[in-house]
Amino acid sequence: MVVRVVRLGTARSEGEGTRIGTVRRPPRGVPKSEFSSRNWYDVWFPTLAPSVETLKLGLAAETPAQWATFARTYRAEMSAPEARHALELLAALSHQNNFSVGCYCETEARCHRSVLRALLTEKGASIEQAG
Length: 131
What we know:
Helix content: 25-40%
Number of domains: 1
Domain DUF488: 3-124
Protein name: DUF488 family protein
Structural class: alpha/beta
């Protein structure tokens, strides 16, 4: 079993399982009834999304130092009890189920999902390698 870290809105991999949207806002202009069929996500889980303020830090990051500030801030948010428990739950579930987590950003390296991948790995998740 494995967790995949994906770009929401892309074609699903065979056996991907439930797709979880770890984003602050649903996709614009898409009826809620079509989120799954259009490969956005099956379940919206904003608990693991950066706060609006932190998201702005990430979007504005132009240097490695600015990106590092974003990553530290997002990690701090994910250490709060609700987020920490969610990460622990997903890590445990990854040993029994296939599922994916994702965001809309084109490039994972400049997206919170790169940090989310690391956090899940640190919690012991069975995670598909980036590739």
